[in-house]
UniProtKB/TrEMBL annotation:
Name of the protein in its database record: Uncharacterized protein
InterPro entries (UniProt xref): FN3_dom (IPR003961), FN3_sf (IPR036116), Ig-like_fold (IPR013783)
Native source organism of the sequence: marine sediment metagenome
Lineage of the species this protein comes from: unclassified sequences, metagenomes, ecological metagenomes
Keywords, ordered alphabetically: Membrane, Transmembrane, Transmembrane helix
Bilayer-crossing regions: 130-148, 183-202
The keyword Repeat is annotated on this UniProt entry: no
Amino acid sequence: LDPNTAYYYRAWSYDTDSGYYSDGYSEDFETTQANMGPPTDFTITEIGVDTVSITWTKDPSATETLIRAKLGGYPIDTTDGEEVYNDVGTSTTDSGLALENTTYYYRAWSWKVGGYSDNYVEGNIGGENMIILAVSIVVLGLTVAGFVKKNGPLMLTSSLGWVLFAFLMYNQSFANAFMNTGLLMFGGAMAIVCAFLSYTTWASGRRRPSLEDEQNAYRKQILKITRRGR
């Protein structure tokens, strides 16, 4: 039968002796249920160093919700990965996680008598420290290179990079990861140092001349004096 469709029925009596149906009949109708969709408003939020909160809205035609989690990628079906939740509610928590360095992948299906929904919702969380480490290495490398070479534009670039980095730290997940690893104070200190170095090398427009530059300037000065003497 088609989902969400009304079907009407009538029934007549039949007399085997006469071979006739009754003039009267009884009737009724039933409407089939709509197709069951997956949960909606599926949200995963970090609420501790090793715990996440998961909330969702249950499909109106569903009885329960199944949530499964997996490392390295999303569960491929309702038996893959680890079961996180399988009940009638609309929220749960998942704890004992290594959120700083590991990404956890979640999928959720609706369930009622007869089976699971064909579609699902999904989301992931964790692993921010891997991004933080990569960004830290790149920005710190630019900072060191700019300071060693006294390269004004490069110093400015690294300083702007740290300003952006500081902004990202105030994203909840990034901030939690930074505070959990002690990198928050390091990032803030480096941003201040980079800004100061950028000001002294680029904004001031001053750069200590190299020995070759000093020698060339000296030769030019001698040449000017020689020409005047003629």
